[in-house]
Design a protein that fits this description.
The structure is a homodimer of 368-residue chains. By secondary structure, chain A is an alpha/beta fold. Chain A folds into 3 domains: 167 residues, 3-Layer(aba) Sandwich (Rossmann fold), CATH 3.40.50; 102 residues, 6-phosphogluconate dehydrogenase C-terminal fold (Orthogonal Bundle); 71 residues, ACT domain (Alpha-Beta Plaits). Chain A has 13 helices and 12 strands. In chain A, the strands form 3 sheets. In chain A, strands 3-2-1-4-5 form a 5-stranded parallel β-sheet, sandwiched between helices. A 4-stranded antiparallel β-sheet of chain A has the order 10-11-9-12, covered by helices on one side. Chain A is globular. The relative contact order of chain A is 0.08. Chains A and B meet through helix 1, helix 6, helix 7, helix 8 and helix 9 of A and strand 8, helix 6, helix 7, helix 8 and helix 9 of B.
Chain lengths: 368, 368
């Protein structure tokens, strides 16, 4: 791993998923990271995990990253700016305009502050879920909010935050805060609400009905498992653009309910077709191919449902000197086999396949 | 591969994804399959792919599987029953009650017919996407529609179709047609409509906005890429239960729009929390979803990030004669530990914990 662009100490306030992941990623670059958290237990865990060292009286960070819950972000930014008069301060909160307005209300001098937002995360929070590679290949918005341009003091702030982003192998996107908030309402907050609405319907299903669920339902409801505490804050803070989108969705929902109430009526099939085709077009606008941001290749191996089989598989993969990047076992109720999803670096995929086949393992081709 | 349960010839009518996959799977068991399709080109492709041989005058199939588009299914079933008076006939259409009613309207004697529905598929269709292992581990509903029970003639039909299902390594689920249709409305058709509604909103987004999309949006909109032709038929045929679900969803949508319009109002945050928590509960009801299946207990073990450690863990679990129900490894590059989530039957949890601790494994208590 080559050294980082950032020079000097980086102080990370908030030892949750994002803060700890930033710490792990920067330390892998040889950058000195200092972790702070109001919770001693959370701090100790993050340090155990290798996210950085504890703060000392002598710290002199050039950059401070505030990664605390949204409702605390403004006051922590204000405190950090005042405690560390030489540091540039950024944050990673997922809504930018209300935060900037709150800082103005608090009378904070924002000349050393510029907000940012990494478009990365996981369903699970906490240092225990942190990954140094969480941000690789992901966009990371630098949210301009005060007419910043690439000159003078602004240029310096932007450059330091860009270095942070590039050191974590994300890519910086400079965007006004208002545009950022409208964008995440569409690509993140609307899907969250819709997924929760859909998942709520499962409460009425019988176990037998839910036993028929497939990947489509799993995919559409996966993010409904997200942390309510965090999302109450996000949805409340960014409510205006979200409500606009929900109202547009309601118009389409009303229309499809009306159409499906009498699908043999004149024009009904065309109306259904138009919704489905619009969905086709919408999803085709997403950049890149589905699954493009997977860094690993997955192979699905059928594993007999008896003790020791999975261990034997992993032992044999180890004997073949192939490094496992990720592993997941899927057990379908009633099936004789589990499916082990084995993720490896793409360059190892072919050799893994031939090693496994030569040892008699069955590869589930349908899932490749 | 052991031989199949089915004896005699199996005739498959319709050489699309499902028909061809059934052919490939049965032939892998050594079963003689005959493929037929109204399109000579589709038929030739399926035969090329190894789904079976072409029909001859001398064919005498014991089982016929009708796998044609939904709007043709009833008439093809009627024709097959009359052409092959010794065969049991099933189909794989995704809605069962309207089909059975259509057969009744057509005056078809259904004593040798029993509908079924494999809960399996891919976004891509056609023989070219067919896989012999498409059905492995998936539920396959046998849709009773005439008060069938496991006696007499009914028992014979059911047994033959069960053999088909077991030969393809799927698992049979016996269920009245009406219950089946209500179930797939919930687990398949509602998610499809919701995903299309959500994906349609992407048409209004700018490229810059969509550039911020992450896995959550990709997952929730993936099935919006499905084939409109097929889905018009499915949604029209099963419209009643779908409309009921959409109307319930609309009540919740109206409520969250109203709440988010003024998130600082009294009770607003609680209302948002209730939707999100209901989504959490809904998604947790999906069987087999890792860490959330109420049938299993999960234990999180910290695994050092070096080759062979996970295999050693699993070997030791095997030595303790404890069967893994599900496994997931969170392998976090940059972190000093990976986190193995091990799901076992609840009655095995305590013994697993003590076995692991006595062997020196660190349990991630924070996650239990």
């Amino acid at each position: 791993m080559v050294g980082g662009r950032l020079v000097g100490q980086v102080r990370i306030v908030g030892a949750g998923l994002l803060g700890s992941s930033i710490g792990l990623g920067l330390r892998a670059r040889g950058i000195e990271t200092i972790v702070h958290d109001a919770s001693p237990a959370a701090l100790a865990l993050a340090i155990d995990y290798g996210a950085g060292r504890a703060a000392t009286e002598l710290d002199d960070p050039g950059l401070i990253v505030v990664a605390v819950p949204p409702d605390l972000t403004a006051q922590v930014i204000a405190r950090e700016l005042s405690e560390f008069p030489n540091a540039i301060v950024t944050d990673v909160a997922s809504i930018k305009l209300p935060l900037f307005e709150e800082l103005k209300r608090l009378g904070v001098d924002t000349s050393r502050y510029l907000g940012s937002h990494p478009l990365a995360g996981r369903e699970r929070g906490g240092a225990i879920s942190a990954r140094g590679d969480l941000f690789i290949g992901r966009p990371w918005v630098i949210a301009t909010s005060n007419g910043e341009d690439a000159n003078g003091e602004d240029a310096k702030k932007i450059a330091v935050i860009e270095d942070l982003i590039l050191d974590l192998e994300a890519f910086p996107v400079l965007m006004p805060a208002e545009e950022h908030d409208r964008s995440v309402a569409l690509v993140s907050h609307l899907p969250q609400v819709v997924s929760s609405l859909l998942a709520k319907r499962l409460l009425d299903g019988t176990d037998r009905s839910l036993g028929l669920a497939g990947q489509g339902l799993r995919d559409t409801t996966r993010i409904a498992a997200s942390d309510p505490e965090l999302w109450i804050q996000i949805l409340s803070a960014n409510h205006s653009p979200i409500v606009k989108l929900l109202e547009l969705l309601r118009v389409d929902l009303d229309s499809i309910i009306s159409t499906l109430s009498d699908p043999s009526a004149a024009g009904a099939r065309r109306a259904i077709a138009q919704l489905l085709a619009a969905g086709n077009s919408g999803v085709s606008r997403l950049p890149g191919k589905h699954g493009q941001d997977r860094k690993f290749s997955s192979i699905f191996v059928m594993v007999e449902d008896r003790p020791g089989e999975l261990a034997r598989l992993l032992t044999e993969i180890g004997e073949a000197k192939i490094n496992l990047e990720d592993l997941r076992l899927e057990h379908a109720p009633g099936a004789l086999f589990g499916l082990a999803e084995i993720a490896v670096l793409p360059e190892a995929e072919e050799r893994l396949l031939s090693e496994l086949e030569s040892r008699g393992w069955r590869i589930a081709e349908a899932y490749q």
